[in-house]
Structures are given as structure tokens and as C-alpha cells.
Amino acid sequence: MDGKEINKFHALQLFTDTFAAETVHLTNEEVGIYIRLLCFAWTKNAKPFSIRSAYRIGQCIDDDCKGTVKKVLYEFFKMNGEDEYADCWTHKRLVQEHDYLTKKYKKRSEAGKKGGLARSKNVAPIPIPSPSPNKYINSFSEIWDKLCIKRGSKFKAHQIYLKVHDEIDGIQHHIAEIFNKQMKGIEDKFVPHFSTWLSQKRWEDYQNQDESITIKQKMEKLGYVFRHTESNFDYFKKDGIEYKIDKYDKDHIIHKVE
């Protein structure tokens, strides 16, 4: 290396088993859009991008396509801020992977300058513990049993749990409670697999969230009666008139059903 800092990486490592488990519930169209957005985010060095950019990458020309893009963003990406149209969307694993590679190549470059690169190749890698077939550690089993909704592979969730175990040390007894609170009021089909939730470290999001009432509770306080949920809309009725709210709309604008 010539001393220049490397921060552009053309290859993105994809853990196929994890990816397959996380996307098994998606349609082919949704999987395709998810892959497009992953590649786009990686070419931007995992920096934030806007939802308009996501629509462009998804080649959206109608509201159905935009709805699919929104669904993928809200399930697999993280919105930093309140305005979804700002440059605020990131993918937590990509950010971590990019930071890791940047530091790795910087360290290798510095070691090479000092003549230590050759010696570093002889250091044995730190082994990652893997679960025995059909066996789960007690702390994970206790968490799994307490989940209000169990989606995805228990085995895959256990593998991810082993990788993040040290990071949740001290709060592992509250992990199920945090997950259940975050999923409260969300339709089952929109609930992420527990393995996805763990790999994206969404328990960290809860530490920055205030306890807030759900859309349904807010509407009921205003005199609206909840009727049903369809796609990403919750439907309500008041004074004989039906209304709907897009659950992904942060402003919770009430629309009259025509």
C-alpha cells in the first residue's frame, strides 16, 4: 500500500445463511429491491441516503413499488432522525462492516510499514463459538420463550445471539421485554425475524426511545374506533365515517376513506 487510507471496497461480504433466513418471508420483488438497496448503500461507503434515492434505485414508477421500498427500508434499515426524506437511512451491519474493513486495512498498512505484516499472518484467528446441533444455551432459551411473536429460525437466532452475547451482557434479562415493547401494535407480518432484530442490534434503538402510546391508543383517545389493518394502513371509524392512517407516516396524517 502507498499510505493512502482505503475506504472504498468493491466487494461486499454476504452471509448467505443469515440472508436466506432474514428474507424467507419476502416476495421475489422485495428480495430484489433489498439487494439493490444493499449494493447501493455499499457503493456509498454505507453513508446515509434518502428515501427518494431508494425509490430511484428501486426504479419505482408507481405507488405499489414505493410501498415495497418503504417496507424493505423500515424492516432492514434504520432511520436516523425524523424526516424520512432526508439523507437518514443506513444499514447497521453495513456501517459496522465498512468501519471494520477501514480499520483493518489501515492497521495492515501501518503494520506493513513497520515490517510486522508477515508476522501478523502467523497469528491464529480468534474462534467464534458455534452452537451444538439442536442445543441452545439457557439464557437464549429463556429469551425465546418470552417473545410475544416468534418469527424466523430459532437455530439462526441462536447463532446470532452467540455473536452478540457479550454486547448485551447486563441487559440480557430485558431483551425479550425490549423486543415485545418494540413490536407492540405492529402486524405480525411486519415483525422482523428475531435473528434480524439481533443482528441489527435494535435493542440499542430502545435505549433512545421514550415510552409512547401506539397509533391505535392515540386515535381511541380522540374518539376513533379501530376497525382493522390492511397492508400498511390502520382503519378507524368515527361518526359513521371511515378513516385510515399509514403506519409508516411519521406525522400520522388521518385520511378519509373514499
Task: Give a description of the structure.
The chain is an alpha+beta fold and 258 residues long. It has 3 domains: 1-123, no CATH class; 128-207, no CATH class; 215-256, no CATH class. 46% of the residues lie in helices and 10% in strands. The chain has 12 helices and 6 strands. The strands form 2 sheets. It has a 4-stranded antiparallel beta sheet with strand order 3-4-5-6, with helices on one face. Helix 2 (28-43) crosses helix 4. The model is unreliable at 208-212 (pLDDT under 50).
- What is the oligomeric state here? single chain
Number of helices: 12
Number of domains: 3
Number-wise, the strands total 6
Write down the overall geometry. Answer: globular
- Looking across the biggest beta sheet, what order are the strands in? 3-4-5-6
Taking the alpha carbons of the first and last residues, their distance comes to 64 Å
Stretches where pLDDT is under 50 for at least 5 consecutive residues are 208-212
Mean pLDDT: 78
* Estimated radius of gyration: 21 Å
Helix-strand topology string = HHHHEEHHHHHHHHEEEE
Strand content: 5-15%
Instruction: State the share of residues found in helices, binned by percent.
Output: 40-55%
Tell me about the biggest sheet? 4 strands, antiparallel
- Class from helix and strand fractions: alpha+beta
